[in-house]
Design goal:
The protein has one domain: TIM Barrel. The protein is 37% helix and 20% strand. The protein is globular, with a radius of gyration of 19 Å. The protein starts with 18 loop residues before the first helix and ends in a 12-residue tail after the last helix.
């Protein structure tokens, strides 16, 4: 595997007692690992995209969740540095696993505050141009890790990314999401529902999903339901006119070699006949 770029060098260099913070950041970049979770088209039950999910390898080799990485994204510079490191690792290992000769779109989280980093596009392009993926094969899923109020600036950055060929999605939406109405007016490729809404039994949440799905269809946008774990939830998402699904019913997050095997199995399954 290629050596990861020293993306933490993008950050301001601390001095004195702050030096250990940079060392800790460097160790975190070195510990990054990525898994991949398929996103399934509900029209034909075929893989349409793959989300790149960051994990952290402990000293004993155990693979943990994303919590340590998320906690380190305390500002725009940290967020873009870690996002860049995750993207680079994925793009470096995908060819080795035989995963670039597909029509799949590879989705990666991009915190909204990181979008305001002045070197965002330059950092992304410097990483992508060393890979075989075209911009339209990469979708950035915008997450609100920290509150962002300058939606106009976000819209400007999205326009730049779209012009460069990248796809954008709004991630983890819920009815209480700040600035949701304004965010939904951005030129997005997809809208993703948070698991809490997808698995909810509340009629109000079902209405929320249905209304957003109607809005998305009118704007030629995909809708993705995260956290689909049962056939009952899948059936409800189909009834609510969601176009794509993601969750354990289809697949857990997988290392690259296991993802290749999953794709080779042609997972066209009668999910609705599985029961609950």
């Amino acid at each position: 595997m290629k050596t990861l770029p020293k993306l933490h060098s993008q950050l301001p260099r601390p001095s004195g007692s702050l030096e250990p913070c940079l060392d800790a950041h460097s160790r975190l970049v070195d510990a990054l690992r990525v898994h991949y979770q398929p996103i399934i088209s509900l029209a034909d039950m075929q893989p349409h995209a793959v989300e790149v999910l960051a994990r952290c390898e402990a000293a004993d080799g155990a693979i943990g969740g994303p919590e340590t990485i998320l906690e380190a994204m305390t500002n725009a510079s940290d967020s873009i540095a870690l996002t860049g490191a995750i993207l680079h690792r994925a793009l470096a290992e995908l060819p080795q696993a035989g995963l670039t000769d597909t029509d799949l779109c590879f989705a990666i989280n991009l915190p909204l505050d990181a979008m305001l980093h002045p070197d965002l596009l330059a950092i992304i392009e410097s990483i992508r141009t060393g890979s075989v993926l075209a911009p339209h094969q990469i979708r950035f899923e915008l997450t609100e890790r920290h509150a962002v109020t300058d939606i106009g600036k976000v819209a400007e950055v999205i326009a730049v990314l779209r012009q460069a060929g990248y796809l954008l999605a709004l991630d983890d939406i819920i009815p209480q999401m700040p600035n949701l109405a304004a965010l939904l007016e951005l030129p997005l490729h997809a809208i993703k529902f948070d698991r809490s809404v997808v698995t909810s039994q509340l009629p109000a949440d079902h209405d929320f999903i249905r209304n957003i799905a109607t809005h998305a269809k009118a704007n030629s946008q995909q809708t993705v339901a995260e956290g689909i774990e049962t056939a009952t939830t899948l059936a409800r998402m189909i009834d609510l006119h969601i176009t794509h699904g993601q969750g354990f019913l289809f697949s857990h997050p997988l290392p690259a070699p296991e993802l290749l095997a999953f794709l080779g199995r042609q997972p066209v399954i009668a999910f609705l006949g599985r029961g609950n």
